[in-house]
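Dear all,

This email documents one entry for the complex benchmark we are building for the journal club exercise. For each entry we list the sequence lines for every component of the assembly. Then comes the predicted three-dimensional structure of the complex as a token string, followed by one or two observations. Please use this as the template for your own entries, and keep the labels exactly as they appear.
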Amino acid sequence: MTTIKIEHLNKHFHKQSGLNDINLTFESNQIYGLLGRNGAGKSTLLNIITDRIFANSGQVKLDGAVMHDNGDALSKVFMMSQDNLYQESTKVQNIIKTTAAVYDGFDQHLANELIQKFDVNVKTKFGKLSTGYHSIVKLIIALCVPAEVVIFDEPTLGLDANHRELFYSELIQSYSDNPRTFIISTHLIDEVANIVSDVAIIDHGAVIVSGDNESVLKNAHTITGPERELDQYCAGLNVIGSKHLGNLKTNYVYGPLNDDQRIPDTVSVESLDLQTLFIYLTKRKGELENDE
Amino acid sequence: MMNNRMKDLLVVSIKYYLKVFGFMALLFIAFLAVLLIFGNLFDGGDTPSIRSMLTGFNFPLLFSAVLIFSQFDQGFLLKLQNGFARGQIFKNDFWMITLVTVFVTVLNRILHLSWLGSNPTYNGFFTNPLVNFFALFIISFLGNYLLFIVAESLGAFLNLFSKKIRNWIAILIVAGFLFVSISLFSGAAFGVGMLVSNHVIDIQMVETILNLTMSVLFGFNEHGAWNPLNMIVTMLVGSGLLTWLARFIIMRVQIHRI
């Protein structure tokens, strides 16, 4: 059982706020989606978890032990980051060899299999690879290390549709073969919506939604109907966005509905998908046309 | 105590250094072979040969210092990527530097390259040649270690900043060091010269102060002339302070967006 607990984490960059009082828990053997727009603070948070950068205040604990400068705890968490921390002049095969040397239990068999599937030329120097293949090499390593928590920061950066599909299927396969905690940080919500069991949405450096996927979506509704009836029904609900289409209006609601109130016949309530929920929770003023 | 991961990391680091040293040794041998072919390898006559120029340059020492300095950046990132804590990274680097120091010191003793180790004034302080040899070996070892730990500290220090600022700092450090050393030396020499010429102090007083300072640092007239033990104590204190400084800096290095 490996649990990561983040307590009152704050990070500022040159007086600009990066993360504000983040409190999150990543339970073991779950697949988390850490969702946020560009610059929301996802990578900053993940870099602090893996002790690559320091927080201004607050702490990250792994099974109760503070992670900062804790070799035992850090060895249990592996992060595939957007930044290339591997030496550009090193051949891919040597990068894999070095990783295998310091991680007892590195799955070399799986690594060889993935190298073939993704068609990676291991004799090429890391610096000579394209952006997509940089990601692929890092993904292969991340799937093969025996870490109890594996973090993917924008894993599909530069990957074509085929490789993205292959990655997600390998991720699910790897999880079913060896369940462990995966944290996938991305802004491509649609692609991970069916994979993740839990989500945390970050916006402007703060967690605005967190919980298991099912209960988050249970509280997300699309309510459509004539404007007057709709607004009457939605009064007091947490409307996160609206859209007009002819005489009809759609309200996007995040939160529990009023069970005591009868739904008018002209109004329909449907569930909201994760991507739409994300869009309306994180939209900036004037971003969506025809929306209020 | 070192855990298994730390041992594995040390093995990886040793292999890396052996690879680089092996490559450089091959280059060096190839270079010497070329010199041999062209007949300017051996000393002869009054003009120094290329070989003596190369050995006088103390190539292994300077090459190792540059290697330790320049590989800090990538080494640090790779270790961080593989889940090592900063304390462990420092420990690994410390052991690597110690191993490289032993290697270079032995090599220098074989090739008689060490400026301190072959210093005739230190050599011969003790009557027992074996004790003399060990004293000089320790001096040579500590001298080399000092240079390497400075290289490590400097490499770590530059990593406190982003790549862009890092390059500017490197230029500033070199330029600033030259400027300050030249200004200090010329200023002090000018000031002392003025004081002597105006009869505020006499030249003997300057000599006494210099001798006292030197005797503390290098053991000139302390417990007999050229006592290696004084030098060893000075270097041990210096090494300890610089090792602490290197750790202090490494504990503060963070990654920068690349």
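Observations: Chain B has a mean pLDDT of 81. Chain B has one domain: 58-250.
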